[in-house]
Amino acid sequence: xxxxxxxxxxxxxxxxxxxxxxxxxxxxxxxxxxxxxxxxxxxxxxxxxxxxxxxxxxxxxxxxxxxxxxxxxxxxxxxxxxxxxxxxxxxxxxxxxxxxxxxxxxxxxxxxxxxxxxxxxxxxxxxxxxxxxxxxxxxxxxxxxxxxxxxxxxxxxxxxxxxxxxxxxxxxxxxxxxxxxxxxxxxxxxxxxxxxxxxxxxxxxxxxxxxxxxxxxxxxxxxxxxxxxxxxxxxxxxxxxxxxxxxxxxxxxxxxxxxxxxxxxxxxxxxxxxxxxxxxxxxxxxxxxxxxxxxxxxxxxxxxxxxxxxxxxxxxxxxxxxxxxxxxxxxxxxxxxxxxxxxxxxxxxxxxxxxxxxxxxxxxxxxxxxxxxxxxxxxxxxxxxxxxxxxxxxxxxxxxxxxxxxxxxxxxxxxxxxxxxxxxxxxxxxxxxxxxxxxxxxx
Length: 443
Description:
Order of helices and strands: HEEEEEEEHHEEEEHHEEEEEHHEEEEEH
Strand content: 15-25%
Shape: elongated
Distance between the termini: 69 Å
Number of strands: 21
C-alpha cells in the first residue's frame, strides 16, 4: 500500500514537471531595443512574473489556426502580453543560465525578454521548450494548453516557509509548495513522515516535533539541502543506519532527537560529520556512539536525563562550546578495580587487527568478511595510541568536562562537573604507567 502511494506521488510529481516545463516563475524585464533611438532609458528593474508557452487562436489567421505564443503575466497585468514564437527568436543569451539568468531576443516586436532569479532546472527546461517553439517542427511533441491569465498565487514569490501547528490545517488534498525551504508540522499526531515532504528538494529545515512518529524513512537522506532536522517529542526507538550513510553526512548541522525512546545510536551515526548541534535529552540511551570523537565540528551537545553509565573513550577528543549531561545514571569509577580481558598469547585475529590499524591498511567487505570490518570499526585505542580489539584492560575514570567543553552544565545536584569515562589499555605495561600517574595525583 505504501509503495503504491509512493508511486502515485512520484507520478504526480512527474506530471507536474512536464507541465512546469511550459511555465516559469521568475523576475522579468521586457526591454525595447527601440528606446535608445528615441533617447529614452529603460528603468532597469524587473517584476515578478509567470511566463507560459501555449496555443493562441488568432482570428486574423485563416481557419483560425492556433499559433504558439509566449505569455508574460505580472501582478499589474494578469492578462499578460503575448509574443509569437515560431521563427521569431533572434537569439538566446544563456551565459549565466546556471545563475538563473537568461535573455530572449525577439525579432518582432524588437524587445529583449530578460529573465532573472529563476530556478536553474526550470529555466533550462523552459528555454528548451522555447527553442522547439521557435523551430515549430517539433512543438507537437509537447503537450500545450490554451493560454490563460495567471492567478495571483502563481505570480507571487514562491513560498519558502510553512508552519502547521494544528491537525485541521494539515493539507490532505493539496501538495506542499515545491519551493519550501522551512517546513514545520507539529501537534498533528503524525505517525509517519508524509512522503510528499520528501519531494521538497529545497528544504533546509524540517521540524516534525510533537508528533507520534515511530520510524524515519531512509529517503529523508535524499533531501540534499537539509541542514536542520527537529524530531523533538516523538516515539522514535531507532535512528537508522541508512540515514547515517545518506547525503545528510554532508549537509546536516542541527539534529534534535530529544524526548524520544532511543536506547542506542548506531556506530555509523558518527559519519554525520557536519553536525554542530546535537540534542539527545530525555531518551533511554545506555551509551553514546563509541567513535563520537569523529564529530570534529560538534560544538553543542545535550544528553541530559538518559541512562548513561559512563562516556565512551573517544568523548575526550571532542572540542565543545556547551555540554549538558545532567541527570544520568553515572557509575562511581574506581581505577583500582579494572576489568581484564588480556589474551596471552594474543590470538591471530588480535595480531592481524592491530597490524591492520597500525599500518593503516585498507579494508572493506570486498576484501575481508563484513563482520571483520565491523570489528575493525569498533577497535579500541590505548592512551599510547596503539589499537586493541579483544585483548585489553578496561578502567573507568573521572573526566572533568571542562577539558572538552567551554561551558558545562552541572552533572548532578551536588554541583559536580565530572563524569565517568571508560579507558582501554593494550597491555599491563600501559596500565601500570597509568596507575603510577594516578597514585602521584592522589597522594
